TrEMBL record:
<feature type="transmembrane region" description="Helical">
    <location>
        <begin position="50"/>
        <end position="74"/>
    </location>
</feature>
<keyword id="KW-0812">Transmembrane</keyword>
<feature type="transmembrane region" description="Helical">
    <location>
        <begin position="21"/>
        <end position="44"/>
    </location>
</feature>
<keyword id="KW-1133">Transmembrane helix</keyword>
<protein>
    <submittedName>
        <fullName>Uncharacterized protein</fullName>
    </submittedName>
</protein>
<feature type="transmembrane region" description="Helical">
    <location>
        <begin position="86"/>
        <end position="107"/>
    </location>
</feature>
<feature type="transmembrane region" description="Helical">
    <location>
        <begin position="127"/>
        <end position="155"/>
    </location>
</feature>
<keyword id="KW-0472">Membrane</keyword>
């Protein structure tokens, strides 16, 4: 360290094992959780008419959103020395997966004239009403988390691309590069 440089350079922390695991599992988990939401309840004898309906409605949308998020986060991760995504995106991914697993467990279906869900097959028929009510809530939360993950991944990909090109990556850097003076009327 020289006398002209009083502070040592900041070294970026390497990503945790959980962040690296989320990065590697992003695409397979997008497919698996999508299939779980669509037909996972069939493993518990609760697969009925909605499996086909979800296969043409929910599954394509879920795969499109999570697939795009994976594409952006993996593109950004390849630019990084660690090859992993950011902790924020890894956390959003993990939340999406947990919510999707709960949603798939709770979503009800109609089998032989009876309303059932994976939860009611495991916990008893008394929980089918709660399962339906909370299933809707967790369905909404699953898609909110998936879209939030997509937004974070797009923003990080853009920020990483601009930094790799040597261009300003943040709003402050853009304003500084443009010579913005804060709007002073001197």
């Amino acid at each position: 360290m020289s006398s002209t440089s009083p502070t040592p350079p900041v070294r970026a922390a390497s990503p945790s094992a959980a962040v690296r695991l989320c990065t590697g599992a992003a695409l397979p988990m997008a497919v698996l959780t999508g299939l779980w939401i669509t037909a996972g309840r069939a493993l518990f004898g609760a697969g009925g008419l909605l499996v086909g309906v979800f296969a043409v409605t929910v599954l394509p949308v879920y795969l499109a959103v999570t697939g795009l998020a994976c594409w952006h986060l993996l593109r950004d991760a390849r630019r990084r020395r660690s090859g992993a995504t950011t902790p924020a995106i890894a956390g959003a991914l993990a939340c999406t997966w947990v919510l999707a697993l709960i949603f798939g467990f709770l979503v009800p279906d109609r089998v032989e004239g009876q309303v059932v869900s994976a939860a009611s097959a495991v916990l008893g028929p008394d929980v089918v009403g709660l399962s339906a009510g909370f299933g809707n809530t967790f369905g909404i939360l699953t898609f909110v988390a998936a879209f939030a993950t997509l937004g974070l991944a797009i923003a990080q990909d853009r920020r990483g691309r601009r930094a790799a090109e040597g261009r300003p990556a943040t709003e402050d850097e853009i304003l500084d590069a443009a010579g913005y003076d804060g709007g002073r009327l001197d």
